[in-house]
Amino acid sequence: MSLDANIERMMYGSRWDRVKNNLQENWKNYLWKGTIYTSLLFTLATTACSGLIGKTKEETKETVPITQITQVPETTVVETTAPETKPVSFYDNIDEKIRFNVEDGMFPDFWYKAPYNAKAESLNPSEIERSKNILIKVLKKYPEDVLAKNLSKIYVLNYLGFYGVEAGGTDSLDSVYLENKGENNGFDSVWIEKIFHAEFSSILLVNYNSLFNKQAWININPNDFKYVSDTGIEAVINGKDSSTFDPKLNEIGFLYEYAQSSLENDFNSFAKNIFVNDTYFWEAIDKYPKIKAKNDLVIDFYNKINPKFTLAYFKQISQQ
């Protein structure tokens, strides 16, 4: 029921009730005066009610909610253009992402404790500019979204040590750690690039584990083969960590000795070479079926992360 109807009903009812009560209270007095008086009173009452009803309708018009009669002032629509925003690039504040000094909290806390006993030394200042230039060139081989989602820091240091032995590189959840003792000591641009690709591939392997066909990979290995461990640290400690291509191992699906230490290091051995121009590696793919089969699985994994990664793409960037 509308607001107007409610008001009208309330006012009609209340006023009519008052008139009716007055008539009832005085009906005895009206009777003895006869029909003329009764008719006269009835006429007066009817006239009064009609007047009240008319007045009520006028009052009702005044009680319409203001929201129904208020006019909205005219407004001028001003078209505005949102300020252009520059897309956020992974390379913004690149100096914050590539670090060269030992810092508090650079390693997960438990790495500082036994048995890991993480050790590190800041990079020689003379190697900072070279290291930075190498890494920027290397990073350009990845789509920016892959970097942005999976990499926050790269530490290039003069020394890295774990479990009491020196390490060329390692990784944590979203950080890569590389050792660089200078080009004269064998740490040339190709070596640094390969270690980066290897360590970053470990991060990707963890973050996109469901995209990697682990069982198909294992099926390529000899039936009686078992990796030495999950981390490969035993191979390093025992001096079984050669990264020299070995034709005998290529025949059974491994690029070199260290690749047999763990499935992760086996995968890393392909990731570190597929991005660079290593003639032996690409020839081994054509020559050894098991090497090709594993390389196909590597490309399939990267392609699922980003469709830009194809065999043609890897061959192209390996020339850069």
Architecture overview:
The structure is a single chain. The protein is of the alpha/beta class and 320 residues long. It folds into three domains: 3-64; 92-188, no CATH class; 208-320, no CATH class. Helix content is 51%, strand content 8%. The chain has 14 helices and six strands. It has helices at residues 3-25, 27-32, 34-62, 94-97, 128-139, 144-150, 189-207, 214-220, 233-237, 247-251, 263-274, 279-287, 289-305, 311-317, and strands spanning 98-99, 119-122, 153-162, 165-166, 169-171, 175-179. Strands 1, 2, 3, 4, 5 and 6 form a six-stranded mixed sheet that branches. Strand 5 (169-171) and strand 6 form a beta hairpin. The radius of gyration is 43 Å and the shape is globular. It starts with a helix and ends with a helix. Residues 1-73 have low confidence and may be disordered.
Question: What's the quick description here?
Answer:
This protein is an alpha/beta fold. The chain is built from 14 helices and 6 strands.
What's the mean pLDDT score? 82
Total of DSSP H or I helical runs spanning 4+ residues: 14
Summarize the helix and strand pattern as letters: HHHHEEHHEEEEHHHHHHHH
Strand content: 5-15%
Shape: globular
**Estimated radius of gyration:** 43 Å
Count of individual domains: 3
The parts where pLDDT drops under 50 for at least 5 residues are: 1-73
**Helix fraction bin:** 40-55%
- Give the tally of β-strands: 6
SSE-based structural type: alpha/beta
User: What's the main sheet like?
Assistant: 6 strands, mixed
Ends: how far apart? 80 Å
